[in-house]
Amino acid sequence: MGTTQLETVPEPKYWHLRTVLSEALESEFSVGEILPNERDLAARFGVARATLRQALEQLELEGRLQRRRGVGTTVAPPRVGVAVGTEQHAWPGVGEDGWQATDSALAVPPATVADALVTGAEDPVHIVRRSRVTHGQPVAAELLYVPQSSVPDLSAIDAPSGAARARAVLRELQRLELEGQESAVELGSARADEARELDRLTGAPVLVVTTRYLAHGRTAALSVATYRADTCRLTFGDTGGVEIHQDPERRAS
C-alpha cells in the first residue's frame, strides 16, 4: 500500500481520516480481512495514533469495522436486514427468513413472557433457539416461546431435543392460521450469554426486537430476537413502520 498524506481541512482531523479510511475499506479490503496494526496505519496516513484511534472508533460505531479479541480489527460484513414493521406477516421459519434453528427445550419462561402468552406462571412452554449468521459471523440470536396449546400434536413427533425438535415445533406452529403480528424495537445491553453467542463483550449495545404472533385471538408465540447494534440500521417509512434493512452503502446509523 502506498502512503497517503492528509491535506489541511476545516473538519476535525480524525473525521477526515475516517473518510479516507472508509474509501480505503471499499477499494482495498474485503469482508473479514484484518487491518494493519495501528503503528503502520498511522505512518501510512501521517497522523498521530490518537487521531487514528478516534477514526477507527468512529468506523466501529458505524458498523464498518469490528474489533475482535485475539484477532484484531477486521472489516465488518454488510448490515443484516429484517423487516419489522411491514404489513406482510409470516410465521418464523417460513421460506428463507435467514434464521437457523439450533435447539428446543420445554421449560418455564420468564414471568414477563408468561404474562404475554397468558400462561400459568409455572407452565412450561417450548423455547426454540435460532441464530442468524452472515459472512460466517453471528449477528443475531432469537428465543421463540411457544405455548404447548399452540402445537398440541407435537407430542406425537419423535424428536426429543436439538435442531430437529426445533424444526418440528416451527412446522407445527405453521399449521395455525396467522392473524397478525406486532413488533417492538428497543435498545439494550448484551447479557453474558448473549455476548458469547454474538461474539461481543458483555454490556455491548444490542437491538432487541420483540414480536407477538397472533392466532385465534391470542398470542400463539412470542419472539425475542437480539441483534448486534453494529449490524443494523433503523428507518421509519411513510406508514410509520420500522424496518431493519440491508445497507449496501454501509452508511452510518
Mean pLDDT: 82
Per the principal axes of the C-alpha atoms, what is the gross shape?
elongated
Contiguous uncertain segments of 5+ residues? 240-253
Work out the radius of gyration. 22 Å
Tally of helical runs: 6
The beta-strand count equals: 11
Structural class: alpha+beta
Separation, N- and C-terminal Cα atoms:
30 Å
How large a portion of the residues is in β-strands, by DSSP E? 25-35%
User: Helical residue percent?
Assistant: 10-25%
Spatial strand order of the main sheet: 4-5-6-9-8-7
- What would you call the quaternary organization? single chain
Largest sheet: 6 strands, antiparallel
Order of helices and strands: HHHEEEEHEEHEHEEEE
Description:
- This protein has 253 residues and is an alpha+beta fold.
- It contains six helices and eleven strands.
- The protein has helices at residues 13-28, 38-45, 49-61, 111-117, 162-173, 192-198; strands at residues 65-68, 72-75, 82-83, 100-107, 125-134, 137-146, 180-189, 205-215, 218-228, 234-236, 242-244.
- The strands form three sheets. A six-stranded antiparallel sheet has the order 4-5-6-9-8-7.
- Strand 10 (234-236) and strand 11 (242-244) form a beta hairpin.
- Helix 1 (13-28) packs across helix 3 (49-61) and helix 2 crosses helix 3.
- The model is unreliable at 240-253 (pLDDT under 50).
